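Journal club side-thread
Mid-discussion, someone asked how the predicted structure for our own chain would compare to the paper's figures. Pasting it here so we can look after the session.
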Amino acid sequence: ESLSALPSRATAPPTSSASSTPGNRKGSAALPGFEEGPITYLSLSFNRLTGLQLSAAGAFGALEELRLSHNRLAKLPRLEGLVELRRLRCLDLSHNLLADLSLLAAGLAQGKLARLERLFLHNNRIPFLPLHFVATFGGDARGKDKAGRYSECALGSISLDHNPLLLPTADATA
């Protein structure tokens, strides 16, 4: 199920900067709101989620690491506000049902996810990579592309194991 409404205020330990809600078997999760500070780490793995509303203007504005593995996410647009999380450094979408990465690629191309360093997409249904993903890794070790421009994206690793990827061969590009 989709997780959409979060309480604006809830009691939580004042030193909390992380939230984890593993193993929800009913399809939705209740998240606490944090009165004392923004959330920087959030794990909603193993919750059978099909969607989630993330507001960069609210408690999620400082989110640096988001773990959504082992859910039922099939479409990135169901993750409302994802590309607006400008401080996000690590995104784990592994073990879901994702096939289309165009929303994520557009966010990268527009520089909205410029701090994203690690992206986990293994064990999904991804048949191909959008061009911007390929271009991100087409530069040299210093992050320059073929035209000598530095990439605006810090993305250093993408995990794509166990997807039905169709990669271009040398024969197809000749």
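Post-session note: The mean pLDDT is 75.
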